[in-house]
Amino acid sequence: MPDPPLALDHRVLRSLLGAWALAACSVDEAIAVEEHLGHCGPCAEEALRLRDAVGLLHPEESLDLDPGLRNRVIESCLGRRPPRIPVPEWAVPYDAETARLDALLRDIGDSEWHAPVRLRWFDEDHPVSRKTTVAGVIAHLLAVDGLVALALGLDDPLGREAPPQSDPGYRTEAYWRASYFPPTRAVRGPWREQTHELIRTVSFTAGGTHGSGSGGLTVPYSAPDDQGRRVELPLRDSMLDRAFECWIHAGDIAEAVDYPYEPPSPRHLHRMIDLAARLLPGTLPDRRRSGLAAPAHGLVAAGAPGRSLRLEVEGMGGGEWFIPLDSPGAGASADREVAHVALDGVEFCRLAAGHVSPEEAAAGQDGDRQAIRDVLFAAASLSRM
Fold it and tell me: Which parts of the sequence are annotated with region: Disordered (predicted)?
């Protein structure tokens, strides 16, 4: 039941009319004034006169700060402030993207934590999705970042009794089942603390900004298959992968709550694109084994030149990559180029995140149509829950 309005006498309420007209009253004072205006003709006339006068002084505008200002300030600080313990260069994108997402989370209201969000990715050649909330997305990031935590010897957010599973989808569902469902804004604390702990740990153990140290560890992203193979990334690439996921899901959240959100800085975006381009050659053989890509053109010795596709990424963070088509270990160069694909940098990342279909992604295509299709669908298959 709502609280009754403040009990203020006529003299006090009349003195508040100027502040009310300027929208400078507290919520309780504004309610009391507006309740009074419904019963007092002279005060209602005075309030109308004051409100009209305020409108002449300046156009009505929001007193809120530009929502994008915080992101720009954080980006500037991260670029200028020398940390007491240097963060390894390969962990800086993760540091930046988690800080930007946390700024977004600070700005949203309690009710927006329950805004619906769809996690989207590609399974084989088909788009799939999972409905959750803003809080559920943060829980997802917490659970999957926990794979990096485990590789570094830190606590698992799923708890000590959690089964040793490394599949991101399994971990997410397990965390959702074990916590409040749907999760609440309380998940922000554990998520942010874990991100800080990951940065602190790799900074202490990496041996300097460019040192090796913990960067040589690997992080598994799947359970072993029947032949003992599993998806895993070096810690350096895994931190970049987690930065990429953080940005993509921050964009999902921003879209759900109508919040302006910019892509990463060009240098960080370039690294994310480079990681996806480096993963593509290893993805193609798996898709061929599953019958999802055309067979390779014969055997190619490791290091020998084979067919290649030229991936040209335009705009922010762009560049040019030659993707070997016949063997992950084959050399790739312009001499054996059989196809060319041109994409915008952000659009390529959306493709690799499973947020746009391969048919819609490419701005320009030329050459072997099957090779182009195989590479675009391989890029979409990099996505996961």
Answer: 204-228
List pLDDT tens digits, range 61-74. 444 455 555 556 55
DSSP state of 188: H
- Residue that has been written with the tokens 């010795």 in this structure: 301
Q: 309 forms bridges with which residues in the sheet?
A: 323, 339
Backbone angles phi, psi at 62, to 5 degrees: -70, 140
pLDDT at residue 192 greater than cutoff 90: yes
Helix (H) or strand (E) holding 131: strand 126-133
> Which ranges in 111-187 belong to alpha helices (H)?
134-151, 168-178
Neighbours of 85 (CB within 10 A): 10
- CATH fold of 268-381 reads Nonspecific Lipid-transfer Protein; Chain A (3.30.1050)
As a whole number of angstroms, the distance between CA 259 and CA 205 comes to 36
State the Cα–Cα distance between residues 134 and 250, nearest whole angstrom: 9
Tokens linked to 175: 């965390």
Assign domain 69-262 to a CATH class.
mainly alpha
CA nearest neighbour of 325 among 313, 337, 342: 337
- Average pLDDT of 248-254? 97
Burial 360-380 (b: 16+ CB within 10 A, else e): ebbeeeeebeebbbbbbbbbb
pLDDT at 62: 43
CA angle 356, 358, 359 (to 5 degrees): 105
138-159, pLDDT tens digit by residue? 999 999 999 999 999 999 998 8
What are the boundaries of each domain within the chain? Answer: 10-57, 69-262, 268-381
Nearest in space to 146 (alpha carbons), one of 102, 103, 193, 111: 193
Whether pLDDT at 248 is above 50: yes
